[in-house]
Amino acid sequence: MTVLDNPPPPTASEPEGSDNSGKPIGSLLFFGMAGLLIALVASVAVIGVVGLFQDDNDGGGDGGSASAFSSVDVSLTEFSIGGNLTAVAGDVSLDVVNDGSIEHNLVARESGDKTPLLAAGESATLVLGSLAPGSYELFCDVPGHAESGMLTDLVVVGSGEGGGEASGAEEGEEEIDGAAMDKIMVDSMLAFPAETEGIGNEVLEYEMVDGFKQFELTAAITPWEVSPGEFVDAWTYNGMVPGPQIKVDLGDKVRVIITNETPLGTDIHWHGVHTPNSEDGVSPFTQDPISSGDTYTYEFEATDPAIGMYHAHLHSQISVINGMFAAFTIGDKPIPRGETISGVTIPADLVLDKEMPMVLNDAGVIGLTLNGKSFPATEPLVLEPGAWVGIDYYNEGLTAHPMHMHQFPQLVYAKDGIALDHPYWADTINVAPGERYSVIVHAEDPGVWVWHCHILTHVERETGMFGMVTAVIVQEAEG
Ligand SMILES: [Cu+2]
User: Fold this and answer.
1) pLDDT digits (tens, 9 = 90+) for 199-211
2) Ligand 1 mean position to 403 CA, how many Å?
3) Model confidence, pTM
4) How far is the CA of 392 from the centre of ligand 1 (A)?
5) Same-domain pairing of 198 and 324
6) How many A from CA of 378 to the centre of ligand 1?
7) How far is the centre of ligand 1, averaged over its atoms, from the C-alpha of 468 (Å)?
8) Is 89 part of any domain?
9) Domain CATH number, residue 228
């Protein structure tokens, strides 16, 4: 269901809803994203014009000629395998370029042939030998990458075949159907915002027991709808991705009881939170692993302010990237009220109209996501004009993400929960794994303002927009 199909009435009293954005959203979103769209069409066009050609001496009469030779350009990015992945039966080789920002390789499933691990910008040729018509699976075998999207098929057709995408490739060049690609992209964008089951980051309730704020967590593998209709087996705390937020006050005594229903041992590390060494959650150094089926209790006093995270430490490359991560906050955030930064004065009596955690991930079964959801299932930030909003970025993934907000500068006032002596305004904030950046934004201008990771392959692929995109939606002022 798109917003255009079924616009619900705007509801001024419920600015947080993801489905109250009203009829103009689709068209506004389209124009707001026009730049991205153009960038995508241009980049895919480059990828699309690949050399699917045959030797001159393949005279056309002999459909299965062994002289046919296809060289196919393949582009590796986080996390997809791009290019016009078709070839003519005969000798096939792949010219593989790592256009991403981290290491990848390319493996042919059937033969096991593979390129070396390619650093960003490196290339290699993968010679596959003589291939009969059929489908040949290609993937990146860096752990987690195939699951995140780096899995595709090379389609090999007979040289006399006219079907499919190879039909226009007679004289060595593939025709690009630009209108069809435009439609795929625009349709994918107009699906925003889409509803899915499950919302992460719910604030976790506690009980007061023996003077402790006592929180309970269950770690388990549970279904999670990452994008509309796409359910994955996520590793979750209390069934949600990101896990529930824990918020306590300075000086609180904190008790967290975790029951481990995952098949692996686990622990909880309080990332960016001051604790006694015994509570640091790094088995086997500070505790034994919490075996599958066991329950374990952490206790510490919240002695220092924190804008932190909690996540598993043992087997983190499985459990964390698959969903076991969440926000942990101690005390008030050090917003620079009354200060003037680059000529802009923050009101001394500023009260935030809304706060939003923005947890980034890019790997495992969760993949490229904002708060556990891939576009168009990402939640928009819906605001009244003139609203002040606080956003805390947390990166629980494997690579950095430059988070760009259209129109509104973001005032960065804390890094990893530590107040900056010199806060600064920025429209793009590069958040590396493990980092947290805390910002406030003054959203003055109505409209749909796209908010996304600026690694463009983290937001678009040939099947349309996906991944790390959402929008700030500032509603029209009430007349
Ligand atoms: Cu990114």
Assistant:
1) 999 999 999 999 9
2) 8
3) 0.68
4) 16
5) yes
6) 14
7) 6
8) yes
9) 2.60.40.420
pLDDT of residue 88: 81
CA of 397 to the centre of ligand 1 (A): 9
- The pLDDT value recorded for residue 52 is 33
CA of residue 102 to ligand 1 center, whole Å: 11
Determine the distance separating the centroid of ligand 1 and the alpha carbon of 30, expressed in angstroms: 21
**Is the bond preceding residue 300 a cis peptide, omega within 30 degrees?**
no
195 neighbors 229 (Cβ within 8 angstroms): no
How many domains does the chain divide into?
2
Q: How far is the CA of 402 from the centre of ligand 1 (A)?
A: 6
Say yes or no: 202 and 326 in one domain. Answer: yes
Whether 139 is in a domain gets the answer yes
How far is the C-alpha of 247 from the C-alpha of 244, rounded, in Å? 10
143 and 104 belong to one structural domain: yes
Closest CA to 178 of 71, 18, 41: 41
For residue 237, the enclosing domain spans 194-332
- Which tokens hold the place of 464? 């349309």
From 288, 316, 332, give the residue that closes a domain: 332
Query: Can you list the residues of the chain whose pLDDT is less than 70?
Result: 1-67, 159-174, 479
- CA–CA separation, 277 vs 289, rounded Å? 15
Other Cβ atoms less than 10 A from the Cβ of 475: the count is 21
Q: pLDDT for 374-422, tens place per residue?
A: 999 999 999 999 999 999 999 999 999 999 999 999 999 999 999 999 9
Picking from 283, 298, 332, the residue at the C-terminal end of a domain is 332
194: tokens are 């889409």
396 lies in some domain: no
Q: Is residue 381 part of a domain?
A: no
pLDDT of residue 265: 97
Amino acid 160: pLDDT: 54
CA of 75 to the centre of ligand 1 (A): 17
pLDDT value, residue 24 = 40
**What is the whole-number distance in angstroms between the Cα of residue 19 and the centre of ligand 1?**
25
